[in-house]
Amino acid sequence: MSNEVEKVKCLIIGSGPAGYTAAIYAARADLNPVMYTGLVMGGQLTQTTEVDNFPGYPKGVQGVELMEDLRAQAERFGTDIRFGIISAVDFSKRPFTVTTDDNKVIQAETVIISTGATAKWLGIESEQRYNGHGVSACATCDGFFYRGMDVAVVGGGDTAAEEATYLSNLCKKVYLIVRRDELRASKAMQARVFNTPNIEVLWNHVTEEIVGDDKFVTGVRLKNVKTDEVKTIDVQGFFVAIGHHPNTELFVNQIDLDEQGYIKTVPGSTRTNIEGVFAAGDVQDEIYRQAITAAGTGCMAAIEAERWLASMKYGK
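The structure assignment produced for this chain is given below.
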């Protein structure tokens, strides 16, 4: 192993729509970006099937194919894409120092963080078996596929209430599965749920199993936590809405995070509290969490990184 320190203008941590878009713009601006992809090259979208709402794909596209297209475009302009993870960062002084999983040390003039967020799952085996085949963690992404069908949403907070009301406009029936005898959602979101006739709230229920025909979801087996009664409801879609976890463990005590762990950025920008460090995509967005918004902030981050480097070179 060499002890030599590598110096780069622009380091991108994490792939996905935000990282790859940042790489495209940074490479075209001659920043010679180096990207460390993380263990899931391409991010969450590589674990989904059909993507129907990304502009430019009128017939839809598989998540893996979309990310391969973005990666190829980033590579076309010269991005140095490396499969691996960053194990440590030091943003206390410039240039910023990062250490890779094989103990390589890199000094970066700018850093773009695009490590994304991970959906929280219930942790049952059938949930992952039918992921993309009736199980989803994003109603905005996948609700379209369940028009006119019966679906279930699990969760009791604002996210679950919002997903249920969104799906109620598309689906025949929406079951909202709530572990407790009340919602944690805001009063406004609760009112939406209770005033929507095709949403049925199943209080005091937990999901025991997602039922299917080995291809697609056909139902959900539920247990009443107060009576121990078990029943199965017939649904074609099952939406997990118990929140997301931003992938920011690496940046604790290095950068400002909010209460949920998302990176704080200056409104209308991707700037963090550390000059020269930018955050793009779901790692700083708990509201939209869409591929296209992630890509948009990736573009912003690269442009802001280029302008920041220019201000350092020529004076502000």
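Interim note for the steering committee: The domain at 6-118+244-314 is CATH 3.50.50.60 (FAD/NAD(P)-binding domain). The chain has a mean pLDDT of 94.
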